Amino acid sequence: MKRFGVLIVIGAVLALAVFVISKKSDDQVASEEVASQVHPLGTTTAAIIEEEQKIIPAGYKKYIHATYGFSILYPEALAQKEIDEGGNASTIIFQNPAEGKGFQIFVVPYKGEQVSEEQFRRDIPSGVRQNTEEVIVSGAKGAAFYSKDALLGDTREVWFIKNGYLFEVTTLKLLEADLLEVLSTWEFI
Questions:
Q1: Domain segments of the chain: what residues?
Q2: Which of 70, 138, 160, 171 is a Cys-bridge partner for 179, taking CB atoms 3.0 to 4.6 Å apart?
Q3: How far apart are the C-alpha atoms of 7 and 140, rounded to whole Å?
Q4: What are phi and psi of 148, to 5 degrees?
Q5: d(C-alpha 157, C-alpha 146), whole Å
Q6: Among the four given CATH numbers 3.40.1000.10, 3.40.1360.10, 3.40.640.10, 3.40.50.300, the one describing domain 58-188
Q7: What CA–CA distance (Å, rounded) separates 150 from 139?
């Protein structure tokens, strides 16, 4: 009688093992089928997943703002915070105070294709705008320049207009290279 009980237990274990192995096989086939599915644009699911992994390199996060229609990649060591300035304007801050690193994006509705002198004077209380040069950020024409801020000191700023918004991106002058790296990932969506 004991042998019969042992045989039943062994049989149950074998049946469970066969079920688990076949389930893994079914899951693998299913995942291969999903990976090989072709989407309307002619790419496979596997290609899309691979592309997504390429988009966000290690050590970075992706920030997307649907209202203002843009995305960027930024260092994951920076915390992100949004401040509603009213009138459909916002300040988006990316910072790590412990390391003294970061930047901010001020976004405000704007009519016009170029930033007026009046707008510069209004948004740069110090009145300092040095070494101004034309730039293009994700197809949007703008200006980059050095300035001074009462709290921050010397700054590097990049301003551009797209889809009815003025984007004013500011960082410390010493962090200019970090800002240029972030701006190179900017995409309008």
A1: 2-51, 58-188
A2: 171
A3: 75
A4: -135, 140
A5: 6
A6: 3.40.1000.10
A7: 32
